[in-house]
Write a structure and sequence with these properties.
The chain is α/β, with parallel strands linked by helices. It has a domain of 242 residues: Alpha-Beta Barrel (TIM Barrel), CATH 3.20.20. It has 10 helices and 9 strands.
Length: 348
């Protein structure tokens, strides 16, 4: 695990808010107790409901009586100043839910699937775009406007006392895969690094956003050395992650995840940064004991600060159990494991 005292002197940016520095230290301390469980869009909607922002609700809590410790939210469409995310969550409601999660002691992480700036297609439109967003490119004004819109939202994340809420920001993720316009085959490593650095520069220096931790998170690896291929540099990254889903057999997933978590741990220790399984899951959770017998044995001694499963969009596309699901009993057992931390287990 990381050294929290060393982080305080080597990683924290001078203009990072005190609360954001505390979140960084807190993430580094979590592995001493276990790992935090997270769920994407946990508070925004579930299989049979959608939140209006007035109260906390979660499929996870409906099943086991506990809220996740880590709450994921999606920012896609915010760059275009639209009212709702690509997951149809209103950004004003999202802001309220982030406040509720933070007030209760939760960790908030924000993913971002921006539209393709050249074709105006979605994030999965792989029309070449990254070079156009760089300072010499013909769409640099788009990147500027995008980051300005993001910055307005980030600066608006405040508690009732007017103090800014610290969050993890995870842009341009899974870049070593070819399915996003910023991914492998659609830009080279240098172009990707420059895009990350310029986005970081605009947010921090131009728009004075100081309540973000920046998380770098490739998809699963085929070679150990691939983890750092697109890495923008220590000064631009606060924590490390990796996204590994079970798409095929359980055995293949176990082999991939075990190998990649070792790589992640090695890199994170060398750089003294906290690290997480930033996305994972088995769609529909159709292995009844998946949480206790497949996922947990791989995570319990891995040193990660959290593991986040993806969203519950529908009965055809979900990654956490909901009332009546065949994996509910297993998930309840999972939630009672000493090393698995839920919201009430985190201290701030």
């Amino acid at each position: 695990m990381t050294d929290a005292k060393k982080i305080a002197t080597t990683t924290i940016r001078k203009k990072m808010t005190r609360r954001t520095a505390e979140l960084l230290r807190r993430l580094s301390e979590i592995p001493k107790k276990g790992y935090a469980f997270g769920h994407q869009d946990a508070l925004s909607y579930g299989i049979t409901w959608k939140n209006n922002g007035k109260k906390m609700k979660s499929d996870v809590a409906l099943v086991c009586g506990k809220y996740p410790a880590v709450f994921g939210f999606e920012l896609g469409n915010l760059e275009k100043a639209l009212p709702n995310s690509i997951d149809s969550v209103n950004f004003d409601i999202m802001r309220k839910l982030i406040r509720k999660a933070y007030k209760k002691g939760g960790v908030v992480t924000l993913s971002w699937h921006p539209d393709n700036p050249v074709s105006n297609g979605n994030a999965w439109d792989i029309t070449k775009a990254v070079p156009s967003l760089l300072p010499e490119g013909d769409r640099y004004d788009t990147l500027y406007e995008w980051t300005k819109n993001l910055a307005h939202f980030f600066r608006s994340l405040k508690d009732k006392k007017g103090k800014r809420i610290p969050v993890i920001f995870r842009p341009y993720h899974e870049m070593n895969g070819g399915w996003f316009w910023w991914g492998k085959g659609h830009c080279n490593a240098q172009e990707y690094q420059r895009l990350w650095r310029e986005t970081h520069r605009l947010l921090v220096r131009e728009f004075k956003v100081h309540n973000l931790l920046y998380c770098y998170s490739p998809n699963l690896l085929f070679r150990k050395k691939d983890y750092l291929t697109y890495y923008p540099g220590d000064a631009y990254v606060d924590m490390l992650g990796i996204d590994v889903y079970q798409h095929l057999t359980t055995g293949l997933f176990k082999r991939h995840l075990k190998k990649d978590l070792r790589t992640l741990q090695t890199v994170a220790k060398a750089k003294n940064k906290p690290y997480a399984l930033t996305e994972t899951g088995l769609e529909k959770v159709n292995t009844a004991n998946w949480f206790t017998k497949v996922l947990h044995p791989l995570l319990k001694d891995s040193g990660i600060c959290y593991a986040l499963v993806w969203r519950n969009d529908s009965e055809r596309h979900h990654y956490a159990p909901f009332p009546g699901h065949t994996s509910c009993d297993d998930f309840i057992r999972f939630s009672r494991l000493e090393e698995v931390l839920f919201l009430n287990d985190l201290k701030r």
